[in-house]
Amino acid sequence: MFRTEVQVAPSGLALGLQDNVVTIGSCFADVIGTKLQQHKVDVLVNPFGTIFNPVSVSLLLKAASGQPYDFEQHLVQNNGIWYAYDLHSSFSSPSKDDLIAQIQQRLQTTSEALQQASLLIITLGTALAYKLNTTGAVVANCHKLPSKNFTRTLLSSEEIILAFEDMYSLLKMINPQLRVLLTVSPVRHIKETIEMNSVSKSVLRVMCHQLTQLHEDVLYFPAYEIMLDDLRDYRFYKHDMLHPTETAEDYIWQKFIAAYYDKEFSQFTQDWEKVQRALTHRAFHPASEAHQTFLRRALKQLQQLEQKYKISTAAEAAQFKAQLQ
């Protein structure tokens, strides 16, 4: 044994294909959310774009849960484009009214998803945040405005927990059955220096531990520990030496579904990954009888999976049928 494997205890959730999910937070929320989407789960992935700090995450979830918040008072114009301090830069427009409409539409979509979801996954990136000097409010994004407009601050675990508790009570009002899964992103934020990244991740980890002790339906998934301790080798990092490789993401994904999903879903993922491989197959001779037989067999397998797991395979079937002659 040349490694220390992180064992993730079964959670008892036993989620299935019919359980809806919402993910929010850092880029790791995109990774898990996209994996779920690829495996036919109804999931809303990072509806407000990448959000790194937990106070901003809590603010957006509170707004989506119905707490009044005047986003218009937190907009800024830069080079003719309007941005929202509380959201990712992908939410922007030359028109202020259009940006407000974008935000309201996304809040409505997120509210509906949260009411139907069985699980909310919150991935926290950093406890280092920036406060707007004119108001003292924590911002989710500085939108490349002058650094003199902001003050960098290290959020305390007490400050983060207070924001979470306010948000949590609102979530439970709109969906009493919702479970919350906290993760700390394994991506290091070295632009804040390696030393401060360690401090930041420590604050987040302590906060997650405290919240799981306070609430029975708040869980923690150790993606951070899996990456740093289990996959303790730079071959599991991309060229930037910060983000996990596809191999590392797949390994963490397998740990995730083993802990939170039922055995039927695990079997489905194996069956579905065969379909995904078939979809990426490119034949040297598309009109050959061998390839046409391959396509017909794939369509039959799709039909069987659709009946067995009660899923829609129309999009995948269309891709195969387009190649039939």
UniProtKB/TrEMBL annotation:
<keyword id="KW-0175">Coiled coil</keyword>
<protein>
    <submittedName>
        <fullName>GSCFA domain-containing protein</fullName>
        <ecNumber>3.1.-.-</ecNumber>
    </submittedName>
</protein>
<feature type="domain" description="GSCFA">
    <location>
        <begin position="21"/>
        <end position="256"/>
    </location>
</feature>
<keyword id="KW-0378">Hydrolase</keyword>
<dbReference type="InterPro" id="IPR014982">
    <property type="entry name" value="GSCFA"/>
</dbReference>
<dbReference type="Pfam" id="PF08885">
    <property type="entry name" value="GSCFA"/>
</dbReference>
<dbReference type="GO" id="GO:0016787">
    <property type="term" value="F:hydrolase activity"/>
</dbReference>
<feature type="coiled-coil region">
    <location>
        <begin position="288"/>
        <end position="315"/>
    </location>
</feature>
